[in-house]
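Treating backbone geometry as a discrete language has practical consequences that deserve illustration. The sequence in question and its structure tokens are set out directly beneath this paragraph.
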Amino acid sequence: MGKTITIQPVSRVEGHARVTVQLDDGGRVSDTKVQVVEIRGFEKFCLGRPVEEMPRIVTRICGVCPWAHHLAAAKAADAVFGVQIPETAKKIRELAYSAHFIHSHLLHFFFLAGADFLCDPGTDYLVRNIMGLADKHPILVQKIARIRNVAQKMTEIIAGKAIHPDVAVPGGFSKSISEEQRKELRSMAGDCLEFVQFSLDFAKDKVFMNLLPQIKNSPTLNTGFLGMVSKDGELNFYEGRLRLLKLNGECEEFEPSDYLDYISEHTEDWTYMKFPYDKSAGKLSMDPDQPIGVYRTNSLARLNVCDSIPTPLAQKELIDFRKEVGGVAQHNFLYHWARLIEALYAAERAVELLEDEGITDTHVRESVKPCAGRGVGVVEAPRGTLIHDYQTDDNGLLTRVNLIVGTTHNNAAINISAFRTAREVIKDGVCDEDGLNKIEMAIRAYDPCYSCATHKIDGRVAVRVAVVDSKGQVVQTLGN
């Protein structure tokens, strides 16, 4: 009989997941599933709540991604009320979001994924993490920790607190920025920009250029990509239209409120995550060699779908990136390179916004009244396109909530990537520690946030309890 290899937990990701690799009688990989073993359920227990509470509630979906949910919810609530927020409020929202992107992208590249390519090959898994990285590169890790603190402090100055913010409200923002704060934030943004430039140069020299020949000669998962672009086709994290680049080169661009015309959602009974897919494909197939309807989001997707980046330093890096990788970038590892280019854009954008003295204008909020309506709020979260879709009754109480998170968009691709990697590293039923880590690396490239992504659409919460003996063997399974 075949055998099962289980990786649990998947390390250095946000949230909880396990990988189950099924081998056939010949020791070959016959199936691989990335199973999410937590459930959040925000789409259900938010029903009946006043829509204006959503920007405060949904930050609790995740302590790593609170700003993404905060702003997507605020934008969805704006749309429900039919209000155009003041320009200054929009600038402050984008400023806070830029700081969030800086610390989030640096967190993943250095602290979560970094040990895979900055520690020596074969490093024991017990120290193949931030502790091992700190031992090998102590000064670098100190600098990273400091600048992440600076970026977090920026959001604290803007919002009053860095985690679980409550300042973006329907109609705008609840507080303005003083001139003294603008100057302080401008200095901090300059520090972030300087460090991100260093990080990108460091990563290209120590990592990307060394691995590029191997990347170019290795097999890739070829999919479509989804991301937000401005009206001019430029990279934008906060607002714009959604652009779906298909595998055949065709491109569809649409308003975020029309996403249901282009994206369908599929569920499986072995995970608490949904599987969004390209609706025009007619179905979703996660065949590792010929996937159908699969697209990807996140940093690499955004660089693939945009025409350009509106800040000079990041645009130069985008040109160099495209020159090196050629065409549409498909290799998973390139997510890391794209992530640092985006961090550079975020830092440049923060500096731009803070050099605008108009950002201290005190008109930051319009009044709103409860009403029946539908609102879709979309931002580009660090981990991919984030969709909040709300519907309310005449009293402004929620009657329907749908969330599609960046990691959820990537769910099918993550499972396929894990399958393909498992097939490469497991031979004759044998897999060593290095091979197991490569399966995890395939998942980590997407920087998944599983706390954000666990939402089911069928209203059923399937619970299974595995009873194991002293040897770790499953002796009984309870549940539906």
User: Anything to note?
Assistant: Residues 179-217 form the longest helix (39 residues).
